[in-house]
Amino acid sequence: MTRKAKQRVATARLGVHAEAGDWCTINKIPQPPADVFQAADSPRLRPARMRPLGMVGAVLGAPFIPIIMFFELLAKMEEAVMRSLDTRDEKERLRAKREDEKQRRDDVITQQGLDKVFDGNWHGNAGQFLLRWYSHSTHHQRLLLVTQEGIVLAAPPQRVSVGREKHMRIVARLPADEATLVNPFSGEFETRMLLIRFQDGSWLRVDTEELRSDLHMYVLRQALPDV
Q1: In this structure, are strands 193-198 and 169-175 parallel, antiparallel, or unpaired?
Q2: What is the pTM of this model?
Q3: What DSSP element (H or E) covers 171?
Q4: pLDDT at residue 201 above 90?
Q5: How many whole angstroms separate alpha carbon 43 and alpha carbon 218?
Q6: pLDDT digit string (tens) for 39-51?
Q7: In the chain, which ranges are continuous DSSP H helix?
C-alpha cells in the first residue's frame, strides 16, 4: 500500500473528510520565559525518545533503505544526464536562475523570521498552541489535514517508529475562523515549509514530509483567482 493510500485509510478511520494532508514536523521549540513556562504547567517541549522496541522496528526496516536510496539515485542520475545535454549557455542560465531563487527565498526567510519555529510571541495564539504541542502527543510528527471546517492534526498518542497511521488519533482541531494554512512563498519556490497562521496574526512553521506536498498544492489552488 502506498503512503497516500495509507493516509486515506487512516483519514477514513478518523472520520475526517480531508481536502489535503501530509505528515509534518516542527523545528526545535525554544525554552519559553520562566513565567510563561510555569503558567502553562511546565509542558513537555521535546518529542519522546524512541523506545528500544521501536529501535528494533527501525532496524528491521533498515533493509528497505538501500532500495529507497537506489531509486532516489536513479532520479538524480536521470536529472544529471538531462543537464549534461544542455549547452554551456543553458547551464549558465540554469545556475544563475537557481542562485537567484535561493537568494530571493533566503531574503523572504530573513525578512519574515521563518528560520524560527514560530513568530516569537509566547502570549499569541501560535505560542500558546506550541506550548501544548507535545502534551497532545509525544510523537515527533503530525498528520496535518485541511478540511472544510479548518485544520485537523493527528498523531499516535506516544512516539512510534512504525505504524504511525495505525496508532494515530486526532490530537488538535483548529477551526477555519481561528487558523489557516499559508505558503509564505506563494508557490514561487519548491519548499517543505508552510505556516499555520492564527487569527491574531501569530504563526507556527511546519515542514511537510514531501517537497511541494499535497498541502502546498491545496494552498496554491486556494490562492488562484476564480475563472
Answers
A1: unpaired
A2: 0.77
A3: strand 169-175
A4: yes
A5: 33
A6: 999 999 999 987 6
A7: 3-14, 34-39, 52-61, 65-84, 88-112, 125-131, 133-136, 164-167, 214-223
